């Protein structure tokens, strides 16, 4: 707990330092006012009567006071299969906008509303949005009554619909509500555009990045809401992390009112300090200032991490010309008891676990996640994959919305140096022709919006040659050998065949693993487990990851791998492994309280932190007198004692951190296992207790019996 607490404190300190630097440089956006709009909301959940008179009669009753972020599904989407409310609910807030704001431009920026939203001010519709995971902006100044009380109403609807992705709740639940923060943004009539797909309005590109030099272009989109040209000056400046001015560029012009105008500044930086992932996540700052009559009227600050990504088929992933290990995890955003309505505290906790396990890359699946978490990855040095929720099924009606959500993801996240790839779809197939055409079209959109990043699409059936899978720069494959298909060991011939037959393919293993219910334990395991059963032993998950990571680690043909998943998460339409509404493939339980054995397997293999860990600590009631003992140690060969007697015959397992004792004989009753190692003058120990009371029929035997007689 101390390491986790220290890490979170470091994260908070970095944020404070960033803000302090901005203040020291005079970089706070004084002209642009951005304030939280999260307090003072009321909530009314549906379903609502079809009769308009009945709705009107109840409009002023039964409102619940809530604070945003908020979701109405935090309980029902997590506890019982297929028993959650998906439909319409309303939020309302009363707010007085002072007279001093008259003549300004006023926007509401919603970071996320699940899933479709309509926003009203004083009864007027000011904006709509389709999609639960991207931000959107409504300009509301024309409907505001200054100096008086105004009513803001948000209608949210998370019912699945065929024209909005995801089109169902099958792989994960789309939580309803204003589940991410809301911001009130006030600017002058001329501004750095606020409502360009809710982007920062500033787009930073980089070319020819090396240790010797880097070329940087800063495009700023400007908007004039007056009826005449306005003489303005745009200043773009680059600062070091420490606050030293590197370069600045100024240009003057008359900004016309005929739509959004773009202005570009070009820079060449000599001997740049590169962004080198977790090793050295160095960030510059780009400050864009819009001036009128010498006064700053708007200002936007964005990060700049100078880096060059290369995914080279058959060789690996390279960052700034150096081969970079892509130790990958995936993350769903929801928490037990909170759903998707998270604060930065929860995001920081999740990132602390990801950093501690030693991951270098994260696939944020299967949708756009909080901009805050992308920003933290910039500062932590995590290389990340961002994607849209085009998953699982095709309806033929989602074409426009897929393009909309991809455009929003790219524009809103364009400046995050940590992002290396845009994810287009996950396991989407039928009808093949439509899906292939849609994938190709979205790939083309990505290249139009951002030609410098990769694109990826993910298939789950192993058909490399499938037309749906050949429309992006990188092909991702989800393969669950031993769980959904074949045996654990079949990962090896699969990758060897891929290497031989498709040497030109940029391939990533984008999901692999197995479910693990920590209440289910056995020491007797086969090489495959049917996922439709009620018995999901943690030990099978451990066995899967031990073997499969050892194969991945030896095959640079797999440019990056992403285990599924870092955390258990809600799947409201499932009941598997004896648990309602849960996917249990996480390395950590849904409540974030228990780290499974697989967490320590990866920490030992990936992390530089010391690890000494005895496995099967929850498998306490042993089924066999003669068993095996497994230890993970990245500190060298450990000594292991059973009831005070040192065990002999230790052997290396699948990797250099994997140690196994075979044919260990337990005593009747209580057995104490203790591992010890001394490293750099410090002694490390780990201890667990097993109980043996005679060979017995295990819980899994009933599963094996069912499997045999059902022909599984």
Question: How does this structure look, described?
Answer:
- The chain is α+β, with helices and mostly antiparallel strands.
- The strands form 10 sheets. An 8-stranded parallel barrel has the order 24-25-26-27-28-29-30-31.
- Strand 39 and strand 40 form a beta hairpin.
- Helix 6 runs parallel beside helix 7.
Q: Radius of gyration, rounded? A: 27 Å
> Can you count the beta strands?
42
Q: How helical, in percent, are the residues?
A: 10-25%
Q: Extract low-pLDDT stretches.
A: 1-29, 702-712
State the major sheet: 8 strands, parallel, barrel
Sum this structure up briefly.
The protein has 712 residues and is an alpha+beta fold. 20% of the residues lie in helices and 36% in strands.
What are the SSEs and their pairings?
Layout: H1 2-24, E1 33-36, E2 41-45, H2 52-57, E3 64-66, H3 76-79, E4 88-96, E5 105-110, E6 116-121, E7 124-130, E8 136-139, E9 149-157, E10 182-187, E11 190-192, E12 202-207, E13 213-224, E14 230-239, E15 245-255, E16 261-270, E17 275-276, E18 280-281, E19 284-292, E20 295-304, E21 309-312, E22 316-319, E23 322-323, E24 327-331, H4 344-357, E25 361-364, H5 371-380, E26 383-387, H6 399-413, E27 419-426, H7 432-449, E28 454-459, E29 474-478, H8 491-501, E30 507-511, H9 538-553, E31 558-563, E32 569-576, E33 579-583, H10 597-606, E34 612-614, E35 621-622, E36 626-633, E37 639-642, E38 645-646, E39 650-652, E40 658-665, E41 669-679, E42 682-692, H11 699-710
Parallel strand pairs: 24-25, 24-31, 25-26, 26-27, 27-28, 28-29, 29-30, 30-31, 35-42
Antiparallel strand pairs: 1-10, 2-3, 2-4, 4-9, 5-8, 5-10, 6-7, 6-9, 11-13, 12-13, 13-16, 14-15, 14-19, 17-18, 19-20, 21-22, 22-23, 32-33, 34-36, 36-40, 37-38, 37-41, 39-40, 41-42
